[in-house]
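Example record

The entry below shows one chain as it appears in the dataset: sequence first, then structure tokens.
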Amino acid sequence: TEFLPSTVASRVKVLSHIVPKQSVNFASMSEAIPRFLRAHELLMQYAVSKVAITSRIHVALPCVAMNIPVIFVNSNHLYESNKRVKGLLDMFQTVTFKDADVSGLKQFLNTYPWDNPLPNPNSEKVKYLQQTLLKEISKVDCLKDSLVKFNYTFIP
């Protein structure tokens, strides 16, 4: 929050995604359930956000799927050659800074329209990816019920 304008920083909720290291045996659902519950809790907090500022792709993508505007902070030493974000950066506002030079990040955050956040770019790509995923899910019998339960449909 140190780079945000003071009027915005006072309204920010910082979430931690650090989960204590523990051995999780996913063969035992009783050990996996707390992690699933934590993930669900985080998703519910994203869902009521006005905008998300993150350097974590696993935060950015669910927010994009929920149509929450995302500011993705992309540091060259973390992500420049990282294949995990290749092809994804065009689905949200991205601010890249090199090494310790955060001046561009500060400028972006200080001029961002916080009261009317910018929509995520490339909505057609997002819709295409959503429809592709829904189509694949619909092919799996045990997942079809989830589509109906959550009122999702896809266009074949």
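Notes for this example: The chain has a mean pLDDT of 82. Residues 29-47 form the longest helix (19 residues).
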